[in-house]
Structures are given as structure tokens and as C-alpha cells.
Write a structure and sequence with these properties.
301 residues; alpha/beta; Arc Repressor Mutant, subunit A; D-Maltodextrin-Binding Protein, domain 2; 3 domains; 9-stranded mixed β-sheet; 11 strands
Amino acid sequence: MENWDDIRVFLAVARAESLSGAAPALKMDPATLSRRIARLEDRLGAALFLKSPQGYALTERGLRLQAHAARAEAALALVAETGEAERGLTGQIRIGAPDGCANFVLPQVCAAIQARNPGLELQILALPRVVNLSKREADMAITVSRPETGRLMVQKVTDYRLHLAQRRDAPVPESLAALGARAMVGYIPDMIFDRELDYLGDLGATAVPLASNSVSVQLQMLRHAGIGIVHDFALPFAPELTRVLTDQLSLTRAFWLVRHAADRRSERLNRFAAMLLAGLRAEVARLEAGRLTEGITRRDG
């Protein structure tokens, strides 16, 4: 195996598919990365990437090296974890999540876990799209649909509920049929990245006059005007809003925890995943009950 630092650079560029994409995580500039990749290719006597203005694509030799390097990376991680079971978790863990979960649930859960593990650095990656685990954008991800493809470990986190909500001082519509007279708040239809986020069909609508690709922005819109579908766990953060027509429209969705299959033997990530699952389940239940001010349940799971 080549110098591990060079292999680490190779893996980062392979996953990011560009020098500029890999540079921030490695804390190196693209020019330095280009020299490092060229040096590795010279030593191996083969091109590892097809380079173009669109980015860096792996050659057949590069694909073979990536497979070997990824296995070596996983083995090194296992060695680094030796003895960690008796200590608190350490190092960096990045979690990808849709912005509803990232804004209203994950911060409290991560804060509680980090308080019990001071050597742990937790990062929340909130994106209006599905996080790409194969490119190592994150160590694990929360999704709203169960992945059907890929070498992944998938665990159901919990169900969560959504209802129509509006300002408390606004007139309550008599029925779903009366919603046409109100300004609806929701997702931008062509930017819905997961079918489970498409709520308009449940309302018989095709578009909304107040739209955003962000759940947090939608909630802020509703604090000023309109009516829209809101996560029950977000409502404690907007006390001026109230649920309406709950007997006529009630939606249930689920969160899933998705991880790399290669991390199955990682005791460190398994321990963290157990804490995360327990914390998320407790926090969603607490918020759905409308309890914002209570301390989060602190369990290792």
C-alpha cells in the first residue's frame, strides 16, 4: 500500500469528484491536491482519474484502488477504536438530515450526546436533497424514505406526524374544500427531492402561492400569513401557530437512519447510532406532545 496520506488524498478526490470539492475537508488548496494526485499516479505508473472541466472521474485502475483503499480506511478506523468502549466517544461525526429534522430535532439530541462525550465533534449537514453517503458527504444520514438501493444499513427511527396549521388569530376554515380561499404555504413543487415530502396531493392542490424548499422558511411564512402542512414536532417552536382540521387531514411519515454498510463493524459508530436513535425517538415524542421547555431525555440507548 502506498503512503497512507496520499491514499487519503486520493479517496477524498474520488468521493468529491473534483479537487475543489475535496479541498475543504483536507484543508489543502486544489493546486496542492493536483500535485499530490499527479505524484501518486507517477509512482503507480497509471492514470487514476479522467480529468475534465466537469471534474475528476475514476479510471478503471482508479476504481480498483478506491475499493482497496476504502477497505484499508475501514480497518484503520477499527484499530483506532480499540479501547474506546471504556471511554467516551471522540473524533468527528457528521450527520446529514433534511432541514426539518436538522433544525427542530437534531440540535437538542446532538447537544445531549456531546455533553456526555466531550471529545466528540458533531456536525449537522442540512441539505434540501438526499445526502450522498457513497461520496462520504456524511458518516450517516436521516432520510424520510427508506433507500431501496446501495450497500447501506437502514434502521427506522420513528414515525412523525404532520397537520395543517395557521396563526391562532386567523379564522379557521370550515373544511378542506374551503382552503382554496386561503394562501397556502408549502414546498416549491419542482424542488421536492423526496416523494414523501409531496403533501399537495393530499390537499388536491398542484401549487401554492407561498413556497420554499426549506421547512424552516415555510414555518416562518406561516408565522405571518397563510395555512400549510407543518410537522407537529416543529409547532412548539412557533407558539403563535395552531393545528386546524385535524379530523380531516392527518399525515404520518417516518425518519430512517442510513449508514454505510462498510461501517457495520465500527463499534464507535454503532455506539453513536444507538445514542442517536434513542435521542431522536425521545425528542420527537416530547416535541409532538408540545413540551418545548423540558430537558431532553438523556439515554445512551
